Amino acid sequence: MTEALEASRLVVDDQPELERLKITEVFLSLQGEARDVGWPTTFIRLTGCPLRCTYCDTTYSFFGGTWRQIDDLVDEATQNGARHVCVTGGEPLSQKRCLILLKKLCDAGFLVSLETSGAIDISAVDSRVSRVLDLKTPSSGEMARNRLANLPLLTAHDQVKFVIGDRADYDWSVQMLKTHNLAQRAEVLFSPSHGQITATELADWIIADRLPVRFQWQLHKQLWGETPGK
Ligand code: SF4
User: What residue's CA is closest to ligand 1, atom 2?
Assistant: First the structure.
């Protein structure tokens, strides 16, 4: 075998390795938040996150995980039979090949959303994906990680989420809304941080200020509590 042929075989043999992702879990449930709330959805949770938010409810996704081929993940979503697929984490964009998964899911005809911390560049995400960008509020402890250069990239197809733990978070979020014209760019979601403020408090503030935002309350936690894989 010539050296050139040997080299080309190596490239072919290595290709499947390049199409792998570290995965914490894949499961079928109802979408618990954002625009697609209530729809049967396949969730693909990627392993790893460079942030450490105080309120994180998916710390089990920080480490471990299993290598899976991207095509296998698309096949599993197809077998699940739900039109909606949510790619989440952790921070899914911390694995660069997440971009390949998103494209392949769109090509397969799924309605795809991506839940991202907003700390990583979203510009290369397939435009068919609805990006749900979680802007980190002060009480998250990770506000400094917000990549503000992502904000002008948002479109009406995307969503911006604020998880609000106290009045200071709320006031900061309102300021961000105004400074960056977020309600004109994308759908804006305000969500109470579980166990920090009551949903009623946040709802009352939104109504009093007549904010152009959508209140949301995590449906999956009302149905199943903190159970992973739900
Ligand atoms: S970005 Fe998401 S997964 Fe990462 S620590 Fe924050 S809440 Fe948890």
Answer: 90
Q: What is the DSSP letter of 193?
A: P
Which residue among 24, 25, 51, 147 is best mutated to probe the pocket of ligand 1, counting the most ligand atoms within 8 A of its Cβ?
A: 51
Q: At what angle do helices 199-209 and 167-179 cross, to 10 degrees?
A: 40
135 lines ligand 1 (CB under 6 A): no
Q: Give the tens place of pLDDT for each residue, 74-124.
A: 999 999 999 999 999 999 999 999 999 999 999 999 999 999 999 999 999
Q: Is 45 annotated as a binding residue?
A: yes
- How much is the pLDDT for 219? 80
Instruction: Read off the amino acid at residue 142.
Output: E
- pTM, to two decimals: 0.89
Which whole-number Å values give the CA distances from 230 to 44, 113, 178, 189, 194, in the listed order? 12, 17, 35, 21, 16
pLDDT in tens, 162-177: 999 999 999 999 999 9
CATH pick for 17-224 out of 3.40.50.280, 3.20.20.70, 3.60.21.10, 3.20.20.150: 3.20.20.70
- Ligand 1 centre to CA of 175 (Å) is 23
